[in-house]
């Protein structure tokens, strides 16, 4: 799901012209399309990660409740720990996502700030 972020430098180098080639390509349209693609990709990934966190949180809550009723069940404890580890991993993925997004927007702004101004509300 991070393909657009992984390839943003290449995408900008191949689609946004340097000053010497500025007249041959509509850089403002290219930057606008890239902006919209980045926004959609970032929103989609954020939604998916948060959905996974919500589902895993629900499972952890359920397992905790079961664990309180049956403290001697080691299988239940192992499953709870496994789900808690998964939940922490997913929460840390939000931090990774923030770093990836910041990097992409920095590169985007460096190359497209002359050609395209994003809407203020976003």
UniProtKB/TrEMBL annotation:
GO terms for cellular component: mitochondrial intermembrane space. It comes from the Eukaryota. InterPro entries: MIX23 (IPR019171). Pfam families: MIX23. Coiled coil: none annotated. Belongs to the MIX23 family. PANTHER family: COILED-COIL DOMAIN-CONTAINING PROTEIN 58, PROTEIN MIX23. This is Protein MIX23. It comes from Tursiops truncatus.
């Amino acid at each position: 799901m991070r393909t657009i972020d992984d390839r943003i430098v290449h995408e900008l180098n191949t689609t946004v012209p340097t000053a010497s080639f500025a007249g041959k390509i509509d850089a403002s349209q290219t930057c606008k399309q890239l902006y919209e693609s980045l926004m959609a990709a970032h929103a989609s990934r954020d939604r998916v990660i948060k959905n996974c966190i919500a589902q895993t949180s629900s499972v952890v809550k359920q397992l905790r409740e079961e664990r309180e009723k049956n403290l001697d069940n080691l299988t239940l404890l192992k499953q709870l720990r496994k789900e808690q580890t998964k939940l922490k991993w997913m929460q840390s993925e939000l931090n990774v996502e923030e770093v990836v997004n910041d990097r992409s927007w920095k590169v985007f702004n460096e190359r497209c700030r002359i050609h395209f101004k994003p809407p203020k509300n976003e």
